[in-house]
Amino acid sequence: MKLGLFGGTFDPIHLGHLRCAEEVCEIFHLDRIIFIPSARQPLKTEQDITRYVHRAKMVQLAIKDNPNFSISDLEQRRGGTSYSIDTVNYFLATSPETLELNFIVGQDAFQDIHKWKDWKELLKRCHFIVMTRPGYDAEDLSAVLTKDISKDYHYDHVSDGFIGPAETSIYFRRLTFLEISSTDIRTRLAKGQSVRYLVPEIVHHYISAKKLYSSQSFTGN
Ligand code: ATP
How far is the CA of 13 from the centre of ligand 1 (A)? Predict the structure, then answer.
């Protein structure tokens, strides 16, 4: 069983997230990608985050027609700050030993991995698939990880990945990275502009129906 874990704030989920997840699923022959909306993102404390119930609902609507995609409310159920190490540990503890766990992350988020809780341990527990884009591809581990960590990795031509001391890998893959961000979507909506074709139509309807991201938006967790 090859599983991809795709964590994010998804405030809201957009076509950039979905297209990249689709490509990762195909390239790595994953059985499933699980979208995991964070309940409380430790690195986004300065931003008002839309209520979990709305962010999760939008993910659910966006992925409902894709049999390879599913959603987990694990971080909401666990409560407190959402740390990836806790999420990965949960999947490792509750799944069969044959499970291959791949953490999917954009290059911008991976650049900050040294700020994540127990990040060195996290890199040992699962594979990382880093989605890169032109002009942003520091496909050199020492540019991202500290020297003491990156020196323990070696490049493997067969898998086109960097294998670490715990036999977990870091893969960089250049994907069809659509220049869409949730920040931009929120900004457009706050100005009363259209976000059609940036999010799935069904998400667009949900945003309109719930009046999300307008001046009277629902915030808090
Ligand atoms: P924000 O603009 O609010 O920071 P975001 O668009 O970056 O949000 P997140 O929910 O923070 O979305 O991202 C979840 C994950 O998706 C992160 O790993 C991030 O790097 C990745 N990601 C963000 N934008 C894209 C995109 N256009 N294509 C693919 N992956 C993306």
Answer: 8
CB of 8 within 6 A of ligand 1: the answer is yes
Name the residue of 5, 10, 15, 17 whose CB sits within 8 Å of the most ligand 1 atoms, as the mutation to test its pocket.
17
Residue 221 has pLDDT above 70, yes or no: no
Domains of the chain: residue spans and CATH: 2-179 (3.40.50.620)
Atom 30 of ligand 1 has which residue's CA nearest to it?
A: 17
Per-residue confidence band for 219, with pLDDT thresholds at 50, 70 and 90 = very low
pLDDT of 144 above 90: no
108 ligand 1 Cβ < 6 A:
yes
93, exposed or middle or buried, with CB in 10 Å at 0-12, 13-18, 19+? exposed
- Report d(CA 14, CA 59) in Å as an integer: 9
Cα 181 to averaged position of ligand 1 atoms, centre (Å): 6
Q: How far is CA 37 from CA 27, 71, 77, 104, in A?
A: 23, 8, 11, 13
Tell whether the model's pLDDT for residue 204 goes beyond 80. Answer: yes
Q: Residue 52 in contact with residue 76, Cβ under 8 Å?
A: yes
Identify the pLDDT of residue 218. Answer: 41
Alpha carbon 102 to its chain's center: 11
Separation of CA 163 and ligand 1 centre (Å): 25
Predicted pLDDT at 45 = 62
What is the distance between the alpha carbons of residues 123 and 50, in angstroms, rounded to a whole number?
A: 29
Structure confidence at residue 150 (pLDDT): 86
β-pair partners for 174: 132
